[in-house]
Amino acid sequence: MEIKKRSGSTEIFMPEKIVVSAVKCGCPYDTAREIASSLSSRSESIMASSEVREYVLSELRSRNASSSADAWESYEREYKSK
């Protein structure tokens, strides 16, 4: 799978990026790996980075890791919207 970034460029999907980001937000490692794995198994050949973000946030919330999802969103607002 490839990820279409905000700039319009694409890059190969790397599950490790999801794991690292989720763990940095306070998500347990095993949960982060499960989310990255479930994303890897999707059938899309290209996903927008915004779709990946929404998927991860949804999965965090459904797995009782809402505080991690909130921390992820807070980081996005603070650093990526500039």
Structure characteristics:
11% strand, globular, single chain, 82 residues
Structure description:
With 82 residues, this protein is mostly helical. The chain has one domain. It contains four helices and three strands. Strands 2-1-3 form a three-stranded mixed β-sheet. A hairpin with a 5-residue loop joins strand 1 and strand 2. Helix 1 runs antiparallel to helix 2 and helix 3 runs antiparallel to helix 4. The longest helix is centred in the last third of the chain and has 15 residues.
Topology:
Elements: E1 2-4, E2 10-12, H1 15-24, H2 29-40, E3 46-48, H3 49-62, H4 66-80
Parallel strand pairs: 1-3
Antiparallel strand pairs: 1-2
Helix pairs in contact: 1-2, 2-3, 3-4
In short:
With 82 residues, the protein is mainly alpha-helical.
User: Biggest sheet: strands, sense, closure?
Assistant: 3 strands, mixed
Count of discrete domains = 1
Share of helical residues:
55-70%
Strand content: 5-15%
The overall pLDDT average reads 89
Q: Measured on Cα atoms, how large is the radius of gyration?
A: 12 Å
Low confidence ranges: none
Strand order of the largest sheet: 2-1-3
Secondary-structure element series: EEHHEHH
* Alpha plus pi helix count: 4
* Measured distance between first and last alpha carbons: 28 Å
Which structural class best describes the helix and strand composition?
mainly alpha
* Count of extended strands: 3
Spatial shape:
globular
